[in-house]
Design brief:
The complex is a heterodimer. By secondary structure, chain A is α/β, with parallel strands linked by helices. Chain A has one domain (39-193): Oxidized Rhodanese, domain 1. Chain A has helices at 6-26, 39-46, 55-63, 77-82, 93-98, 102-105, 120-131, 143-152, 163-184, 187-206, and strands at residues 52-53, 69-73, 89-90, 111-115, 137-140. Chain A has a 5-stranded parallel beta sheet. In chain A, helix 4 (77-82) links the parallel strand 2 and strand 3 (89-90). In chain A, helix 2 packs antiparallel against helix 7 (120-131). Chain B is α/β, with parallel strands linked by helices. Chain B is elongated, with a radius of gyration of 24 Å. The relative contact order of chain B is 0.15. The chains are: A alpha/beta, B alpha/beta. At the A-B interface, helix 1, helix 2, helix 5, helix 7 and helix 8 of A face helix 1, helix 2 and helix 4 of B.
Chain lengths: 209, 155
């Protein structure tokens, strides 16, 4: 195909290239993989004490079987299999950072509480998720190490116990018992237990017939 | 004039393209693109250092976020105290950017250092580290003895 006027051809090619460049410039290349929240707001959010939950607060959520929370375990699958917070899901940290978080965190009604063995991965993940716009992201302070310090190894050493302390220790005991029961089961039974727990909850919702 | 008419359309398109590129460059609220890549230096604790490693770094700047006892009065000459809530102020960011060596965040709470670290790297600041007393990164320090006798109620 020959063009009578080479200038015309050059003009057309130029226009096509420029328009392609325009389209590329406007495409959201990695819009879902870059922080969207303004830095000042993100800083304010991540320094807000409410984004951190203590081990006692987590224990209460577990004992109450709070369906509006979900625990996300950022450790390796091997560590997760050995023990985990009852009801938690495992997303290893490296996978969490590399993935499209929409598949994990899109339900705005659910509070996602991150934990790991210590403080690093969980806090990175919380900031990362909030930066990408997932405001329903929280962290269990101290991770599993603190969980064991506070809940699993909890011993009352005083002479008298107040009503408040009594409630606290009761919650810790219940949470520790549940943690022990779940994590002491063989892997095959753990999966069945999780499924039966969900099934029985739905049965209760059915009411009398 | 004829030249302008000749290339007017192309110039207009170029100008729109330029404006679009400028918009894209600055539209992400002050954060850089590709959050996963920027966060990847946190894998396996490669962004964490201990106090005894500091002498090995040239031109380091230590940012003390609040009051941190971890340094026990050492390295005062290269330490800058900044409240976590003012870390993003221009003067503070400017000091961090000017630093030719590593920037080391230290706090009495690892969680604060970790959060500020993620925030700063996502803004594109490089060579940022966290000072930790603990050499073992994210290690489970407790012993769990499974109780194989009792069974949960639902089964």
């Amino acid at each position: 195909m020959k063009y009578d006027n080479p200038m015309e051809m050059r003009k057309k090619i130029t226009v096509i290239l420029l328009l392609s460049g325009l389209v590329l410039a406007l495409l959201p290349l990695s819009a879902n993989r870059s922080f969207m929240v303004k830095p000042g707001k993100l800083l304010s959010d991540i320094l807000n004490p409410e984004v951190s939950l203590t081990a006692d607060q987590v224990a209460k959520l577990i004992v109450n079987e709070d369906s509006t929370t979900r625990f996300i375990d950022l450790r390796s699958p091997e560590e997760f299999r050995k023990l985990n917070i009852p009801g938690s899901v495992n997303i290893p940290y490296n996978d969490f950072i590399s993935s499209d978080l929409y598949i994990y965190l899109n339900d705005k009604k659910v509070k996602n509480i991150f934990y790991s063995n210590g403080n690093f991965y969980s806090n990175y993940a919380m900031v990362y998720a909030r930066g990408l716009g997932y405001e329903n992201s929280y962290v269990m302070e101290g991770g599993l190490n603190e969980w064991f310090n506070t809940v699993m190894e909890s011993i009352f050493t005083g002479e008298r116990i107040s009503a408040r302390e009594n409630a606290l220790y009761e919650t810790r005991t219940k949470a520790a018992r549940l943690f022990n029961q779940i994590n002491s089961m063989p892997d095959s039974l753990k999966a069945t237990f999780m499924a039966s727990n969900k099934f029985s909850a739905r049965k209760l919702d059915g009411g009398c017939e | 004039m004829n030249t302008l008419k000749k290339y007017g359309f192309v110039s207009a398109v170029l100008l729109i393209l330029l404006l679009a590129v400028i918009y894209r460059s600055f539209s992400h609220s002050g954060f850089r693109y590709d959050a996963p890549k920027l966060a990847s230096s946190s894998f396996q604790g490669s962004n964490i250092i201990t106090a005894d490693q500091i002498p090995g770094y040239q031109n380091a700047l230590i940012i003390e976020l609040g009051n941190a006892d971890i340094l026990k009065g050492r390295y005062l000459e290269i330490t800058l105290k900044i409240n976590p809530d003012s870390i993003l102020e221009k003067k503070n960011i400017g000091k961090i950017e000017k630093c030719k060596g590593p920037v080391i965040l230290v706090s009495s709470e690892n969680s604060i250092s970790a959060r500020i670290w993620m925030l700063l790297v996502q803004k594109g600041l490089r060579n940022v580290f966290i000072l930790s007393e603990d050499k073992d990164f994210e290690v489970f320090r407790k012993k769990f003895r499974p109780d194989t006798i009792s069974m949960p109620e639902h089964i």
